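Appendix B, Record 12. Input sequence as logged:
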Amino acid sequence: MRVLVVEDEKKMASFILKGLKEVGFLPEVCHRGDEALVRILSSAFDAVVLDIMLPGLDGLAIVRRMRSQGCTTPVLMLSARGDVDERVEGIEAGADDYLAKPFAVKEVIARVRALVRRASETTSHTLRLADLSFDLSRREVSRAGKRLELSAREMLLLEVLMKNAGRVCGRMLLLEKVWDYNFDPGSNLVDVYIMRLRSKIDSSSAVKLLHTVRGSGYTLREGAA
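Logged structural output:
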């Protein structure tokens, strides 16, 4: 599971990063709030560990912008203050949990695990975007009520894109999630499957959902990319 740790105190960030790695997470770190928001909205993380006091953009502003743009990634908010008013402010901004400093890294791990588990348990079995619907349990895709015939790989590609609707999915992310590659084979594999998927979900509709973001990747959203 990918976790983004947003913490400007490098010693603290390293401490959290090490603990998450030791229990099998794939943590990444960011020390600035403005840079963190870009990464959160353009990539697929399973959870975010977010400090409130950050250069560039504070944690409360980050989580508000995440939620306003439809990003539901679970957020564990960290703060040097533990007063009730700040905890309430963090939760009302859109954070899922709150932890006051100082803390033991094992508590961070336990809370991140709980957030990820809760998110997976509450995830709907049906993904929807506009009139596009994907029943995950039946593995059936339809648009405007008409069932679409997709291959298993095309379904997996669509699932990744729909779970990250509104975000740009880069080639490496798609290679990792759909083909289980941790390297770029240097082929046009992703482009070919995107072209096939686009022809199946968009060809019969005036409203196009699958867009290419030049130099960045692909995204599913209503309207232009």
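The CA atoms of residues 41 and 167 lie 6 Å apart.
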